[in-house]
């Protein structure tokens, strides 16, 4: 059974039951609407037919598609009381969890080979921490001279820098990545920070269940060990290496690959981002996109190449509100270090009063947007007094590219071929 956290910090939880549930004392809760303000555990009398619905479930927390939805779930419902309020947990069998994830991350109407591939990696990502060896033979520190220019860690470091330009100037450094969070009350959360899990709300096609059944018990493995199978929405034509987004480690199966049929493709990141090169994920097939993307994801049309712009004052206000550093009007944005896909993992912002170093990729995306930039793969132009960011891709770009994988499946590739393309040197086995 997988414990999935659905909500936290609620003063009350409104639940609509479909079917009969029983609490720990055996008391029956018949189909109806209930409001709970204290702890309770409700177990379905018939797991196959009973369900419960929650209103106002927040999805896409902190991202540009954030919203609230009504969602429906099967399995047991647990409400736990904590100092911050009530936490809602759904206990569900592993394969039911995977069926929901592949229908929530993408769409239940995706090509079945994509659904199979996603079932394997979603199952692997979930169980990887339990299987991780010490030391992991697939991981090694980056060679000297690669990765970040200074030690990075989760957290913030502010420092004074000698020789700063102008009296009163200081440098600020915010160096942070976001690893897999430990949740004391459940195994995994239900949102994009873990894997999207939206119950049976989106699992409307038999293909999703068939894909899970066809791959039951299968995992992505490297040298026999379950992989840390990362994935993102759109790599922008080249996938990224693990160390750009997380620890300064090289993971052999999470290296950068061109998202196309060629084995290698020479490119200069800045030139690549400004161009519109062919790739699996460079698709404008509206029929395919309508099949593979959930409705709220289809609102994001410029996922392969995108553009945002700010005035110097707008960007200064944004940075101040997002990271708490007042730089004054921003004069320059400089990429100090990029990964193979062009994603920046160390950035310098220069303002009229101060300057700031930021890393890694997600912190850069968070600092330069009211939500998050689509990715940190961007170049900057100055046009008519404005700072124009031209970017590539959607997400961190590491591992499987969901849109690229969907195109591969649509072209007739099998799920194992898809996985071998994105995770080089891996195998699929129980």
Structure description:
- The chain has 430 residues and is an alpha+beta fold.
- 22% of the residues lie in helices and 30% in strands.
- The strands form seven sheets. A seven-stranded mixed sheet has the order 4-3-6-9-10-1-14. A five-stranded mixed sheet has the order 12-13-22-21-20. The chain has a four-stranded antiparallel sheet with strand order 5-2-7-8, with no helix packed on it.
- Helix 1 packs across helix 3 and helix 2 packs across helix 3.
- About 7% of the residues have low confidence.
Give me the secondary-structure topology.
Blueprint: E1 2-10, E2 13-18, E3 21-22, E4 28-29, E5 32-36, E6 40-44, E7 51-59, E8 67-73, E9 76-82, E10 85-92, H1 94-105, H2 112-131, E11 139-141, E12 157-158, E13 171-175, E14 188-189, H3 206-214, E15 219-222, E16 225-226, E17 231-232, H4 242-245, E18 249-251, H5 269-274, H6 286-292, E19 305-310, H7 312-323, E20 330-338, E21 344-351, E22 355-359, H8 361-367, E23 378-383, E24 386-392, E25 400-401, H9 402-410, H10 415-422, E26 427-429
Parallel strand pairs: 1-14, 13-22, 17-25
Antiparallel strand pairs: 1-10, 2-5, 2-7, 3-4, 3-6, 6-9, 7-8, 9-10, 11-18, 12-13, 15-16, 15-26, 19-24, 20-21, 21-22, 23-24
């Amino acid at each position: 059974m997988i414990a999935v956290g659905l909500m936290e910090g609620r003063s009350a939880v409104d639940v609509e039951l479909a079917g009969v549930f029983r609490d720990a004392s055996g008391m029956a809760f018949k189909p109806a609407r209930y409001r709970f303000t204290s702890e309770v555990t409700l177990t379905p009398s018939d797991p196959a037919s009973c369900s419960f619905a929650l209103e106002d479930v927040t999805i896409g927390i902190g991202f540009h598609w954030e919203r609230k939805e009504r969602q429906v779930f099967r399995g047991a419902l647990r409400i736990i009381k904590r100092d911050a309020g009530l936490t809602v947990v759904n206990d569900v069998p592993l394969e039911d969890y995977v069926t929901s994830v592949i229908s929530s991350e993408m769409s239940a109407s995706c090509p079945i080979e994509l659904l199979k591939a996603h079932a394997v990696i979603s199952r692997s990502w979930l169980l990887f921490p339990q299987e991780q060896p010490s030391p992991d033979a697939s991981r090694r520190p980056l060679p000297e001279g690669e990765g970040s220019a200074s030690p990075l860690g989760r957290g913030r470091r502010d420092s004074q820098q000698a020789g700063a330009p102008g009296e009163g100037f200081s440098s600020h450094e915010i160096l942070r990545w976001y690893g897999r969070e430990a949740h004391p009350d459940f195994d995994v959360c239900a949102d994009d920070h873990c894997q999207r899990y939206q119950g049976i709300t989106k699992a409307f096609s038999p293909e999703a269940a068939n894909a899970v059944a066809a791959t039951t018990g299968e995992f992505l493995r490297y040298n026999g060990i379950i992989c840390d199978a990362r994935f993102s929405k759109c790599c922008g034509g080249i996938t990224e290496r693990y160390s750009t987004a997380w620890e300064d480690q090289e993971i052999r199966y999470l290296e950068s690959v061109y998202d196309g049929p060629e084995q290698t493709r020479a490119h200069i990141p800045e030139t690549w981002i400004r161009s519109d090169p062919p790739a699996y994920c460079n698709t404008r097939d509206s029929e395919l996109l309508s099949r593979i993307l959930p409705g709220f994801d289809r609102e994001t049309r410029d996922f392969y190449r995108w553009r945002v712009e700010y005035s110097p004052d707008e960007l200064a206000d944004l940075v101040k509100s997002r990271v708490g550093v007042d730089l004054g009007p921003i004069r320059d944005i400089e990429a100090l270090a990029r990964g193979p896909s062009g994603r920046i993992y160390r950035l310098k912002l220069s303002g009229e009063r101060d300057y700031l170093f930021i890393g890694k990729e997600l912190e850069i995306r968070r600092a330069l947007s009211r939500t998050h930039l689509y990715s940190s793969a961007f170049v900057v132009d100055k046009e008519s007094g404005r700072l124009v960011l031209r970017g590539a891709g959607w997400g961190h770009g590491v591992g499987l590219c969901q849109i690229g994988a969907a195109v591969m499946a649509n072209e007739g590739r099998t799920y194992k071929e898809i996985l071998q393309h994105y995770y080089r040197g891996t195998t699929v086995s129980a």
